[in-house]
Amino acid sequence: MKNPDSYPFSPVRRSLLLGAASAVLAAPFAGTALADASDDPYPLPKFNYSKLPEAFRPAVVNYTGRQWPGTVIVDTPKRQLYLILEGGKAMRWGCAVGKDGFRWAGLADIGRKVMWPRWTPPKEMIARNPDMAKWANGMPGGPQNPLGARALYLFQNGNDTLFRIHGTTDPMSIGKNASSGCIRMVNQDAVELYRRVPVGSRVVVLAEGV
């Protein structure tokens, strides 16, 4: 990032996100995504968020940064994803980010949104794990697909970056460096984000260590 201090989650401005409110005071969020997904071909069961540390559970928090409402911000160091709302608030969810050597940071736009997306492992992944070759032409969407219930495709200048914000079959990886570069969310949280953000929305992914 050329100017990390311009974002409210950098070390200089990170405290502006919560202000006087600590994570303990963040208001829990009762999502409505499942109620709005009656046409979902694979209805999701309820997820027990008590399995996750509180910092990675959905919550509404204060926001005093510069990004416009509707912007998605991924705080890579804290493994948290924010959707900026009106009125000085933001939705916060936990996420998993890339392992060492696989992380990506920068500005992007949501170029596609897909329900139960098809997953095609990149050639580099197949080279590392030949068992993935069986999915070289794509793995159909569904409960066993590693992209989970929803995927938001990140584009730059109209081109697919090959990075995604998506659900996961491994919700206990949330809060960790666990992926091959993409940003994972609990499936129910990915559904909620998918419902709230349109194609064209701006995504800011903050770099580790800035």
Describe the protein.
- By secondary structure, this protein is mainly β.
- Helices cover 10% and strands 27% of the residues.
- The protein contains three helices and twelve strands, in the order αβββββββαββββαβ.
- The protein has helices at residues 15-18, 123-128, 187-196; strands at 27-28, 59-62, 72-75, 80-84, 89-94, 97-98, 106-115, 150-156, 159-166, 177-179, 183-184, 202-205.
- The strands form two sheets. The protein has a ten-stranded mixed beta sheet. A two-stranded parallel sheet has the order 6-10.
- A hairpin with a 4-residue loop joins β3 and β4.
DSSP strand tally: 12
The main β sheet shows up as: 10 strands, mixed
N-to-C series of helices and strands: HEEEEEEEHEEEEHE
Query: How many individual helices?
Result: 3
Please list the strands of the largest sheet in the order they lie side by side: 1-2-5-4-3-12-7-8-9-11
Question: Whole-Å distance between the termini?
Answer: 8 Å
Approximate helicity band:
under 10%
Q: What would you report as the Rg, rounded to the nearest angstrom?
A: 16 Å
Mean pLDDT: 83
What is the chains' assembly state? Answer: single chain
